[in-house]
Amino acid sequence: xxxxxxxxxxxxxxxxxxxxxxxxxxxxxxxxxxxxxxxxxxxxxxxxxxxxxxxxxxxxxxxxxxxxxxxxxxxxxxxxxxxxxxxxxxxxxxxxxxxxxxxxxxxxxxxxxxxxxxxxxxxxxxxxxxxxxxxxxxxxxxxxxxxxxxxxxxxxxxxxxxxxxxxxxxxxxxxxxxxxxxxxxxxxxxxxxxxxxxxxxxxxxxxxxxxxxxxxxxxxxxxxxxxxxxxxxxxxxxxxxxxxxxxxxxxxxxxxxxxxxxxxxxxxxxxxxxxxxxxxxxxxxxxxxxxxxxxxxxxxxxxxxxxxxxxxxxxxxxxxxxxxxxxxxxxxxxxxxxxxxxxxxxxxxxxxxxxxxxxxxxxxxxxxxxxxxxxxxxxxxxxxxxxxxxxxxxxxxxxxxxxxxxxxxxxxxxxxxxxxxxxxxxxxxxxxxxxxxxxxxxxxxxxxxxxxxxxxxxxxxxxxxxxxxxxxxxxxxxxxxxx
Length: 483
Ligand SMILES: NC(=O)c1ccc[n+]([C@@H]2O[C@H](COP(=O)([O-])OP(=O)(O)OC[C@H]3O[C@@H](n4cnc5c(N)ncnc54)[C@H](O)[C@@H]3O)[C@@H](O)[C@H]2O)c1
Ligand SMILES: C[N+](C)(C)CCCC=O
Prior knowledge:
This is Betaine-aldehyde dehydrogenase. By secondary structure, the protein is α/β, with parallel strands linked by helices. It has helices at residues 43-62, 65-81, 83-94, 98-104, 106-119, 154-167, 183-193, 208-215, 229-241, 264-273, 296-307, 328-343, 375-378, 394-402, 417-426, 461-465, and strands at residues 9-11, 14-16, 23-28, 33-39, 127-130, 133-141, 144-148, 171-175, 201-203, 220-226, 245-249, 255-258, 288-292, 347-350, 365-368, 385-391, 409-413, 431-434, 453-454, 467-474.
């Protein structure tokens, strides 16, 4: 497969290049070798993208919602037909194993396009009768939306933003992460092939400065960021300057609580999904695993046995189920956290070492006897590191689970369903799980509370964040005035 795209940017329905932009060297995480060279957007490219989105949005919004929905559903079909090719590219972009990308990335993107394509025609206002007079509301697009992506799910993030934005009649300029710039270009190509007018969905590349220049442009009505909390703070503040709408999908340090009465095998599976999928590079991961004391030894034993089933290697090999980290830098950061865990007195149960040779491989790592104040229990690590903390009572664990600035996700494993619902109600998190972890179907809202974010992606809730209501008062009689 050719990983070098036709050009760096996709604007107004076609590939565009400007070699004056800063070089972006795309590295395959499994080998550490360059697989493509792109250029960050120059001010001229940013201008072209925004002008094109501004112009195209008017036309797109004038289509019936049914017609817009048909384009999105056709794009979903194309994505499904090309799932293999798109999954191979996602694996080159991120290093995630093909075993994962072939079921979780273009497929999730297609589901979003299909779901919001189906919903488009049902995005309506309402009628409010006021005696003889009445008010009707129109649910209107916001205009030009900017999407900014993180590197862990490049296809999914591009589609989770494009699908609701376009269903509501907006246009989008999307800037992928500089670490994984390839996949969003394919989403743009597919939308045009499915019939989206040129300019409705544009992709431009760049580092943070390109993202920042998009946000401050007066033509922009909304910014949707998927990224870290520090970047979220900056982006939210810049968006506030221009009173722009925002969606912030940010980081987390989510709790996963396992009671003594939980089904052990399911709890271990949930903790694996919540810590080691995508080599641990998942925002919603339940990295603080609170295990009730009575089940702790059995949990750690079974976890260690199950992790022996990891098959690390060439992520394009369909038998491999654990890939490298996205970059050398990210592996260094995670190794720094592992060192802190050791220094601060946690017990290393398994893993903890990098794998020598090419690529950015790091072992799946489990620490036990972690306490709330340790660095590995407080900071988002964004790598394959699980921290196991002990607890005694429900009341105690809920308080400790919530004692964090983050609020992205939370999970509980227990056979006591009354307790499970009490815990879900008590968690300070936007996305909660009972007896499972990290599923994100498009029909359900996904997003965080506290410092983990603002707004929701997926589900009908996303429509609220890509549209605005206009109220129209209609008088049926004479106008009364005081003088
Ligand atoms: N909540 C979610 O849905 C979700 C999903 C995936 C990742 N994440 C989070 O993303 C983080 C990992 O991704 P990352 O390292 O790419 O995050 P990051 O914050 O470093 O970068 C995210 C994006 O923001 C851009 N950016 C950086 N500075 C900017 C600025 N000043 N203005 C505008 N754009 C700017 C980057 O170029 C990149 O495209 C983790 O914290 C993870 O939890 C959250
Ligand atoms: C679908 N997952 C696995 C929950 C990932 C959502 C995006 C967060 O990183």
